[in-house]
Amino acid sequence: MQGPRPSRRHPSRRPVRNAALHAYEHAAPIDDDLPCVYWYNLGEAHQLIGSSALNLGNPKQSVVHFLEASAAHTSQEAYNGDAFPRGHAIYLARLAEAHLSLGDVDAAVATAHDAVDRMGGVTSARGTSTLEDLRKKLARRRGIPAVADFLDYTDTE
Fold first, then answer.
1. What is the DSSP string of 44-108?
2. Cystine design at 108: which of 27, 44, 100, 144 (Cβ 3.0–4.6 Å)?
3. What is the per-residue pLDDT for 69?
C-alpha cells in the first residue's frame, strides 16, 4: 500500500514556504546581517512568498502573505514601503491582482489606487509594466463603476 502522495500541481509549495520562514526565524539577529542585505527582512520574505503564491495560482495565500508583510512583529521586520516606493507599488499591484482573482473587486480597486499613489514620482519600467498588467485584468470588468473610474483615472493616452 502506498502512502499519501504529494499534490501533482505544486508538490513542494508549502514545505518551501515554511522552510523559508523557518530559516529566517532561526537566523542570526538582523543587526548581524551584512550591509548588502539591508533591504531583506521578514516583511520582504512575506512579499516574495505572496507574489510566488499568486504566480502559482493561490491568491488566497497570496493575500495572507502580502498583508502579513506590513504586520510583521516589529518595525524593523515590517516591509518598509516608504523606503522602497517602487517595490511597494509593485507589491500593492500584485495584492490588487490577488483580490481581483478572489472576486473582491472593491478591495482590488482600492489597493490599485494605493499602488498608483505609491508610484507617483517614481519612474520604473517594472512598476509601470505591473500596473499595466493590472489595468488589463481590471478592464475585463469595466462595467463596474469603480473599475471604470480607476481605468479612466489611470488612462495614459
1. HHHHHHHHHHHHTT-HHHHHHHHHHHHT-SSTTTS--TTT-HHHHHHHHHHHHHHHHHTT-HHHH
2. 100
3. 85
Q: Which amino acid is at 87?
A: G
Q: How many CB atoms lie within 10 A of CB 28?
A: 7
104 grid coordinates: 473582491
pTM (global) more than 0.85: no
* Sequence-separated (6 or more) residues with CB below 8 Å from residue 24: 42, 45
51 touches 94 (CB < 8 A): yes
Q: CB neighbours of 69 closer than 8 A, spacing ≥ 6?
A: 43, 44, 46, 47, 50, 78, 79, 91
Residue ranges of the domains in the chain? 13-80, 85-157
Residue 126: strand, helix, or coil: helix
Whether 156 has a pLDDT exceeding 80, the answer reads no
